[in-house]
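Recall the central idea of this unit: under ordinary conditions, the amino acid sequence of a chain determines the structure it adopts. In this exercise we apply that idea directly, starting from the sequence alone.
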Amino acid sequence: MRILFADDHTLVREGIRPFLQELADDVEVLEADNLSGAEAQASSAGKLDLILLDLKMPGMDGFNGISKFTQSHPGVPIVILSGHYNRKDVIAALGYGISGYIPKNIGGMAMVNALRLVMAGEKYLPSEAFSESGPDEDESIFVPPSDPAAQTEDPRFATLTQREMEILAHLIEGETNKEIARALDLQEITVKIHVRNIYRKIGAQNRAQAVRITLQAGWKNPTA
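Accordingly, the structure predicted from this sequence is:
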C-alpha cells in the first residue's frame, strides 16, 4: 500500500506515520510539506492507494489543491487532515470529491479505523462539524450519515449504559480489554461482559464491526 501524506508540520507527520503503517503490512508512506512537494511525490510514485492532505499547508490555495489531486488521481481516496474545521469547510471539501475529513485531535487508532472505512469505499466526516451552526454559517440541506440528530435517535446507542459508553469510547481507540480494565479500574472479566453487551445492543459480531458501526453512526461519547 502506497500512501501520500502531506503536512507542513514535521511533528505531525512523525506522530501520525506509525498509525498509517498499521493499515497494512507493506505500507509505504511518501511525505511532503507543501503542495508542490506533494505533487512531485505523486508524479514519481506511480500508483497511490491513499492521499492525506493538510488543508492549510503552503500552496493549497483553499480547495484548489484538492481539486488538482482529484483530477490527477481519479479514484484514489483523498482525506483531509485538519486541526480546525467547520461545517462550511467540510461541505465544501465534499463538493471537491474528498472521501474523508479527519480532525488532527482524533485518537490514533480511531484515525486508523476511520481510514479503514475510507479504504473500504465509505466516507468519514466529523460529526461535530454538523452540530447546530452559528448565526454566520450558511445553512445547508446536506445531512451526512454522522448527523448528531440521527445518533441521538439511534436505538442501538440509546440503550447503552454510562459504563458501556465509556468502554465503547476506549474500543474506538483500539484498546484491548486489559488496557480498558486498567484505564477504568475494572476487572478484565467485567470489561469482557460489558463488551459482549455492547455487541448485542448495537448489532455487532466482533470488535472490528463494533468500531465500524460506531464510526459510521458518528457516535460521540456523551459522558466525555
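The radius of gyration is 18 Å.
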